[in-house]
Amino acid sequence: MRFPEGFTWGTATAAFQIEGAVGEDGRGPSIWDVFTHEPGRIVDGTTADVACDHYHRVPEDVGLLADLRAQSYRFSVAWPRIVPTGSGATNPAGVAFYDRLVDALLERGIAPLVTLYHWDLPQPLQAAGGWTNRDTASHFAEYATIVGAALGDRVRTFSTFNEPWCAAYLGYSAGVHAPGITGNAAALRAVHHLNLAHGLGATALRSALPPSGQVSITLNLAHVVPDTESPEDVRAARHVDDLSNRIFLDPILRGEYPQELLDDLRHITDWSFVDDGDLATIHQPLDVLGVNYYTPTRIAAATPERLAAISRRWTNDPSSTVGPSAYPGTDLALAMPQDGPYTAMGWRIEPATLTELLVRVHRDHPGVPLMITENGAAFADEVSPDGVVHDADRIAYLHGHIGAVHAAIEQGVDVRGYFAWSLMDNFEWAWGLSRRFGLVHVDYDTLVRTPKDSYGWYRGVIADNGLA
Ligand code: FCB
After folding, report:
1. Is 14 in the pocket of ligand 1 (CB under 6 A)?
2. Ligand 1 contacts CB of residue 293 (under 6 A)
3. What is the tens place of the pLDDT at every residue in 343-352?
4. How far is the centre of ligand 1, averaged over its atoms, from the C-alpha of 17 (Å)?
5. How far is the CA of 63 from the centre of ligand 1 (A)?
6. CA dihedral 117, 122, 124, 129 (to 10 degrees)
7. Do residues 91 and 147 touch, judged by C-beta distance below 8 A?
């Protein structure tokens, strides 16, 4: 199973999940620093104050990428390192850190792919309302200009946002991510301001970058299946598809929100935060669309019996829809438990759904090149007595999903690359240090990195440009 010539293989991380050094060199606090220090927010009670200590270990970590023969590395820049208070003065020491990282990558022939926002909003902006405040979008554009000007001479591709779905719904509706707010109307405001920030940020990047610069955004698109073929379930699934996919895809790639979604949610909001001209601002040309994918979503119309069944099974899951929901307006829809096989996140493993999703996005938006910017799996890895991590389950997961990407390409979908999540074990948000997604094992006491079997296997995939 060979991939097209020029297909890009890489791995991905995010600043807050790996860097640590949260108080160093002038970095300001982010919403995730505050959230992780609030009692009860993180499943295992850990924080990301140290995480993988990547901030102090750039040469070693770039060495791991080089030994993997990674062609590209997707990382995020921490806004609170660059502009510690969110707006106003730039922190040169913060810029210098990413300068060094980019140079270290280029020295080893690894192309950096820079994400501007992977959820670590500067806390002072949250104090002013965070993503419910329209001004946050303008501050994001100022920050995009700073990073584009600083790194654009060496970095070709910039992505404005990682998974605005999570930032808006898990942060402002379910409340299981920072800033921990539970309000359906707030989440929809946040969605719109994130979309607006993408448009303003993309425009700012275009002016800051040389003509060869590329602008992107990464969405965690959902493959939504109705629980049954009943009209109620089919309608609920369509609603969640609108809320998960089209609420981002349609304004970004078509300059409009789906009318049925606007109508479905009028009992929550009157959408008065959408100003004239906003949709034109959001609708900017994209060079590539990043797609993150892990697991399919099964949706049913909400009934009391179904609610009870779900809460029995999912009460420990911070991403569950019990109580405050990740789907504003879920008096209509419920995410149903699914059969295994599962990863350690409880996420169903079904690679063929990735093929179906990519084919659908290509059909709906022909002409937009796609890139898998995250895909991977958590398993309960253990270092064996021989000092190695034998993660055959992760290899099987990656094998299945890389095969699914290949199947999509064979069906005519323009997929340009694949980034495994993640280079190394790291701070998995509400799950803290309790879930391991890495190709490299991290011992959080000693910070020793140990490549897992999957690392060696993935190196082979890169060398072969495909699956043997
Ligand atoms: C995605 C996030 C990433 C990581 C993976 C497991 O939603 O973008 O940071 O946590 O899930």
Report:
1. yes
2. no
3. 999 999 999 9
4. 9
5. 23
6. 30
7. no
DSSP bridge partners of 424: 440
- Report the phi/psi class of residue 163: left, alpha or beta, with left for phi > 0 and alpha for psi in -120 to 50: left
Residues recognised as catalytic: 163, 374
The finding on whether 425 has its CB within 6 A of some atom of ligand 1 is no
What are the residues facing 78 on neighbouring strands? none
C-alpha to C-alpha distance for 69 and 200, rounded to whole angstroms: 35
What local confidence, expressed as pLDDT, does residue 400 receive? Answer: 98
Q: Tell me phi and psi for residue 2, to 5 degrees.
A: -85, 145
Domain ranges of the chain: 8-295+338-464
Low-confidence ranges of the chain (pLDDT < 50): 312-323
pLDDT of residue 311: 54
Domain at 8-295+338-464, CATH class:
alpha beta
Q: Is the CB of 161 under 6 A from ligand 1?
A: no
Cα(386) to ligand 1 centroid in Å equals 30
* Unique residue bearing structure tokens 């990519």: 358
The CA distance from 423 to 428, in Å, is: 13
Question: Which residue type, as a one-letter code, is found at position 194?
Answer: L
Taking CA atoms only, the protein residue closest to ligand 1 atom 10 is 428
Peptide bond into 341 cis (omega under 30): yes
Tokens 């440009």 found at:
465
Longest CA pairwise span in the chain (Å):
63
pLDDT, position 332: 67
Instruction: Report the pLDDT value the prediction gives residue 335, as an integer from 0 to 100.
Output: 83
- DSSP for 330-349, please give it: TTSEEEPP--S-B-TT--B-
pLDDT on residue 320: 47
**How far, in Å, from the CA of 319 to the mean position of ligand 1?**
12
Count of all residues that appear for the chain in the document = 468
Phi, psi for 103 (deg, rounded to 5): -65, -40
Angle among Cα 194, 430, 402 to the nearest 5 degrees reads 75
Atom of ligand 1 nearest to the CA of 218: 8
Q: What is the pLDDT of residue 317?
A: 45
Any ligand 1 atom below 6 A from CB of 13: no
